Amino acid sequence: MTFAHIRWSAYRAGVIILASIISITVFGILITAPSKLGLHSYIVHDISETPWLVVIALPLSLLFLFGPFYAAAWAFRRILALAARLLKKNANGG
User: Fold this and answer.
1) The domain containing residue 87 runs over which residues?
2) Which DSSP letter does residue 83 get?
3) Is 49 within a domain?
4) Which of 18, 45, 53, 68 could disulfide-pair with 31, CB 3.0 to 4.6 Å?
5) pTM of the entire structure?
């Protein structure tokens, strides 16, 4: 067991909690962004007037639905990787 492993074990719970809070915040911001920007009402209103807008609205809706999940998971993984890299760098004396 190396020094870096011991340090990661000591800080792991705190890093996971911090990464969870940040990823939940990212998710919350991205899930509410379309309605706060007025995109939802704009798309719903314009689809009734121009039916061809469905071609654009469907992929956009899927992006608004699944994008926040992927972004939150990405943020969680990046924070864990950054913390592991910083702890390893500090353990090696750098």
Assistant:
1) 20-91
2) H
3) yes
4) 68
5) 0.77
